[in-house]
């Protein structure tokens, strides 16, 4: 009888140890108890998409942001001047704490921009963002048509436009109050 009681207690002790999963390692910058859920990278902009429309650059009011994409959809790429630093955003879903190099090539210029998964206020999920100084030689890639490749984010072909050139020009005139995190790779 005593053997059965001991066996039952040992069995319960083993089962109780299995009822809770081991805690996962915390990721720096990630929310506590984060749960991965499939969500769109950005909410679509209002308006219908014309079937024959081509993506284009659109300048936001104030000239500090240029967005590239189809009318009636969320942007695919954006370039913004924040505190004298250019912020490049690739609007595709990114995993929490992910980091990569966003390879951009066009008009004889190559830029390998370090990007990280970033939570953007007002948007669900994470998207890719990186920063670069407006006087860095790598920003010349944004002044003409270029191609971009991001691991897990696919390839994007971007046409030339006045909006990104204007953002870069305005950002050069703004004193930097934040430190950019990237440099161009000369080729």
What does this molecule look like?
This protein has 187 residues and is an alpha+beta fold. It has a domain at 56-172: Immunoglobulin-like. Helix content is 15%, strand content 32%. The chain is built from 2 helices and 9 strands. It has helices at 2-18, 162-172; strands at residues 56-59, 65-69, 77-82, 85-93, 99-106, 109-119, 126-132, 146-150, 154-158. Strands 1-2-3-4-7-6-5-8-9 form a 9-stranded antiparallel sheet, with helices on one face. Strand 2 (65-69) and strand 3 (77-82) form a beta hairpin. The radius of gyration is 23 Å and the shape is globular.
> Class of one domain, according to the CATH hierarchy?
Mainly Beta
Alpha plus pi helix count? 2
- Gyration radius (Cα, Å) is 23 Å
CATH architecture identity of one domain? Sandwich
Which structural class should the secondary elements be placed in?
Answer: alpha+beta
Low-confidence stretches: 15-25, 33-43
* Secondary-structure element string: HEEEEEEEEEH
Helix fraction, binned, reads 10-25%
Number of DSSP strands?
9
Strand percentage, roughly? 25-35%
N-to-C CA distance:
81 Å
Report the mean per-residue pLDDT as an integer.
80
Physical arrangement of strands within the biggest beta sheet: 1-2-3-4-7-6-5-8-9
Q: Which descriptor suits the 3D outline?
A: globular
CATH fold title of one domain: Immunoglobulin-like
What can be said about the biggest beta sheet?
Answer: 9 strands, antiparallel
């Amino acid at each position: 009888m005593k053997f059965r009681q001991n066996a039952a207690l040992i069995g319960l002790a083993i089962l109780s140890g299995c009822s809770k999963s081991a805690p996962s390692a915390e990721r720096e910058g990630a929310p506590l108890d984060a749960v991965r859920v499939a969500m769109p990278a950005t909410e679509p902009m209002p308006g219908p998409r014309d079937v024959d429309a081509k993506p284009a650059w659109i300048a936001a009011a104030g000239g500090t942001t240029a967005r590239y994409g189809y009318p009636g959809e969320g942007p695919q790429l954006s370039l913004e001047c924040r505190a004298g630093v250019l912020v490049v955003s690739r609007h595709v879903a990114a995993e929490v704490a992910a980091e990569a190099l966003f390879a951009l090539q066009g008009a004889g210029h190559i830029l390998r921009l370090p990007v990280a998964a970033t939570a953007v206020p007002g948007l669900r999920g994470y998207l890719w963002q990186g920063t670069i100084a407006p006087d860095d030689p790598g920003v010349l890639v944004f002044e003409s048509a270029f191609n971009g490749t991001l691991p897990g984010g696919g390839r994007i072909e971007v046409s030339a436009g006045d909006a990104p050139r204007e953002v870069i020009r305005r950002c050069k005139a703004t004193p930097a109050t934040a430190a950019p995190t990237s440099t161009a790779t000369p080729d």
